[in-house]
Amino acid sequence: xxxxxxxxxxxxxxxxxxxxxxxxxxxxxxxxxxxxxxxxxxxxxxxxxxxxxxxxxxxxxxxxxxxxxxxxxxxxxxxxxxxxxxxxxxxxxxxxxxxxxxxxxxxxxxxxxxxxxxxxxxxxxxxxxxxxxxxxxxxxxxxxxxxxxxxxxxxxxxxxxxxxxxxxxxxxxxxxxxxxxxxxxxxxxxxxxxxxxxxxxxxxxxxxxxxxxxxxxxxxxxxxxxxxxxxxxxxxxxxxxxxxxxxxxxxxxxxxxxxxxxxxxxxxxxxxxxxxxxxxxxxxxxxxxxxxxxxxxxxxxxxxxxxxxxxxxxxxxxxxxxxxxxxxxxxxxxxxxxxxxxxxxxxxxxxxxxxxxxxxxxxxxxxxxxxxxxxxxxxxxxxx
Length: 384
Fold this sequence. Notes:
The protein is built from 13 helices and eight strands. It has helices at residues 21-26, 44-52, 68-81, 92-107, 183-202, 208-230, 235-255, 259-270, 275-297, 303-315, 322-335, 351-358, 373-383; strands spanning 10-13, 31-36, 56-61, 85-90, 131-135, 147-152, 157-162, 170-173. A six-stranded parallel beta sheet has the order 1-8-5-4-2-3, with helices on both faces. Helix 5 (183-202) packs antiparallel against helix 6 (208-230), helix 5 packs parallel to helix 9 and helix 8 packs across helix 12. The radius of gyration is 20 Å and the shape is globular. It starts with 9 loop residues before the first strand and ends with a helix.
């Protein structure tokens, strides 16, 4: 057995931990760029902390999915203002944009020089600027992932800028920052978090370290996802989901994902749909397809009993099977008012293009078994 495990240099987790950031930030730089979501006012507590610690602060809002142009704009701000430390404060979009900006600021060039699939895929050669990631949603785990997902509006696809150097210097996860997230966003991000602890557990790249983390994340998400949707003030459920999201980022970075995210990147680039909503619509159908295909083609595959284990962890029933796990995910998606892919404009006529783009996705390579185009088409039909 051989494997590697990488993550952020330092992880700080706990309610109220944002308040400790001022002193930490002052050790890393004097001129900060804070990358936020669409509402910069949500980051006001962070801005006050940084200013009180003596840092000059500049901001950049990323209103939707981060784009290649957002990364270019941020790198220009860094250059103009002499920024020496970058913060990402928000959901996965703000955090990924911040990661890309911190890397481009020191490596130079254009995002397309480094992007996978549509770019040159060049490796980073210089350490990025110091980067601190502070999630305000419980979903992507981007605060401990080594990639930044950027949307190319020209190519109509989302792809990654990926390198171990992009792991944040500090990931600060304060579950209190998620308490104000509305139910529909809680649902989308929560289903993303669930997906990101499930897929690495059955990935052919799973290892004992990611397995242990995945089990912890699955158990916490299964116990709290429904509760946090119906009662967003439940502090314990919010904490569980923040931890599940963090764990998802840890395990996906080290064991990859699967067909759900293999589809989600291209679909997110082609349609105006939240990433978590796409994952939620696909997850039960990908689970079911994987079980059926594995049993038919590789009946001795290690992942087959793991799908039964997923059923047991999700339902809390030690006698549950893979089918029970699929049913639990379907029931949860219904409870969280998850819409099918057709609600976002996906049509059968688009399937060939979706399949072509998905086939080049790095996430698809983590799936426990390679699915044929016919099998992938069936998943899309079920999710439609």
